[in-house]
Write a structure and sequence with these properties.
Strand content: 5-15%
Number of helices: 16
Structural class: mainly alpha
Radius of gyration: 24 Å
Amino acid sequence: MRTNFVADAVASLEKANADLEPELLGPSAVREQLALYARAEKLAAFGKTMLARRLDDAQAVARVIGTSVGKAKSVVETGKALGDADEVRAAFQGGDISLDQAAEIARAEVASPGSAAGLLTEVNKESFQALTDKARKVVLEAEQHRGLAQRQHEARFARQHVDPLGMVHLHLAFEPHIGTPIMRRAEVEAQRLLGSAKEKGESEPFERYLADAYGALLSGAPSVRPKRPELVMLVSYEVAKRGWNDVQEGELCTKRDVASRSLVPPAHPKPFHWMVTPVAPEVAREISKDAFLTGLFYDGKDLRHLKRWSRSIPVEVRIALELGEPPDFDGVKCTDCGSRYRSERDHVEPHVAKGPSSTDNLKWRCPPCHEVKTIKDLRSGKFTGDTGRSPPH
């Protein structure tokens, strides 16, 4: 290996940084330079990761690259995972994927050999969060038969500290079937607080109301109970028929975060981040003993095309609509950016502009993309400011 290549590249980059004057560049030139710097960062990240693996000392790596020991340990672990993921390593080596993308895909490939090919094709199609969800789903499905329930139980923890401002930080890790209902209650309470604040013209970022909601829950204060199920699980009939012992290929035993309350969301709480999480069959069996069971049949005509739904939709039908397309039922995502975080139904043609309230005129959008769409409709003259912003359309 000729190490002078790296030294020459560093020297060239130092000169480029010295000559860089972003204020003198036009938009297209800025994008071009940004892409080049991003590629350089990806290429450098490969070398850093491989050398960190060779050193195999998180504390030493942390000192050299100037990061925390935890992050340095993650870099070392990624390097080790790449040893069993040749396809991911080749893409990383060529600068096609970032360190974060390589870490997620490599872990999936190690857990389920052969999964990397499909994930690599999604790199330029999906957001990083969507890619992460898919990769982690692959890992959990592979671990479903390897004592997943026991390992999740042993992984629960609580950490706490006080920062320099005096703020109390809590980091809690719960098993999926325990944590999901808690998240759901906090989300609904936070949405109620946000709605009340908006009525008074005093709204703050949503995360602050979410903090208030968790504070109320932890202190035992009364909160709004969700009117929708707090936990939805999708289990193939065959799994239960065999005695809840295993999940075979093509079958499902998963937790679904179905949280939106209506196909027309403006007056209702927004769903939190959708995550499809495989669950150990024995855990699903215990939950089923104290649950409402509903059959879901998908051999036939798509439920979405049977009629134009009103606001009064049976809860069983509404949940079925929100599960996503069969047979994977991977949920819904923003039609513009692919985000699965708090997606909500948006009218393609605004309702105040005579747009119908039918499923054909409703698309899933995340709040930021929903806001952008509303502004575009406002500027195009489809409605006026006093009718178009509360609720969004």
